[in-house]
Amino acid sequence: MYICEIIHIKLLIQRGIEIFCIYRPPKCSYDETKKLLKYISSILNPNVLIYGDFNIPKINWDSMDSDNELGQLLIDFCSQNEIHQHIKENTRDSSILDLVFTKPKNLIENYNISAPFSTSDHNMISFILNIKFHRELKSKKYTRSFSHKNTENLKKYTSSINWKYILETKFTTNDKYNNITQNLVSALNYAIPLQTLNLIIRNSYPKKIKILQARKLAIHQSLRKNPINNNLKLQYRFISKELKKNIKSYNEEKISQTINKGGNAIHKFIRQKFKLNNKIPNLISEDNKIHMNIKDKCKLLANTFSKYFQLKEFDKNFTPRQTTRERLEDIEFDILTVENILENLPNKKL
């Protein structure tokens, strides 16, 4: 997209770290480099690691100055985003071409520049990513499945309770109330027990998919006992493909049913599916200045739109052109004909 090669990785850990590996070719223009940095700025988060071959020499990273516009562009990118550049030694001949940027500064430690790896003519840079992994167990969410079968079981259970005896054995209003609620909760736990939310969702699949899931699990367990059995591997591959195909078909059918409910259902589906992000990306004004502040971006958009959405004064003496299109004027119909036509139209629910 920007004549550059970019690999973007997002570590889904507690801190949430964005990692960019970039190769910027020497012939990449100033405008394309600006677009590259603008793109990176628009998706940065508080923890970011950017490294790669930028091919922008002649930058003094100690004093943060440069005698060329590409170098100054990179320095401005660092200062505007509060990003620190670590490499201060030559990485290819007498130039610093390979750079490592981090935010915050202590995101990496113990970086080292060593001899080129394999056939590369660039020195190798190694460092330690300063992160700690904390595995957090997600608390399970419980709910009840109020299916027709479960509600029927609840009715049978509550009808078998001797409510008269329960009320007669307690004398105060509070005791009667507590006894009734305790029995109702017990009935609910017996007939419709709490289940984890993911189990409820899994149970919503049709019978065919449940059978495929059970077969896949059985083959998987057999494979764990006999991992070199090629026949089991083939069966597992086949059943996985079949299960994936059926789940995809089931989900597509559910989506179709949701969309066919009408306009509001379509809008709700789009919001949930795409999780629209209303954040304004970084903008470049006509003077080639990058705007990252939300107020500056809003002001720039307002000024741009105002040029094209101004009220225009029209000539009061303006007369529209006379249309020469032919019109049908010899059609005759009565109310009964219209009524019969409307009655025979198909009943389409929107």
From TrEMBL:
One of its GO terms (molecular function) is catalytic activity. One of its GO terms (cellular component) is extracellular matrix. Residues 17-125 form the Endonuclease/exonuclease/phosphatase domain. Signal peptide: none annotated. GO terms for biological process: cell adhesion involved in heart morphogenesis; larval heart development. InterPro entries: Endo/exonu/phosph_ase_sf (IPR036691), Endo/exonuclease/phosphatase (IPR005135). PANTHER family: REVERSE TRANSCRIPTASE DOMAIN-CONTAINING PROTEIN, TRANSCRIPTASE, PUTATIVE-RELATED-RELATED. This is Endonuclease/exonuclease/phosphatase domain-containing protein.
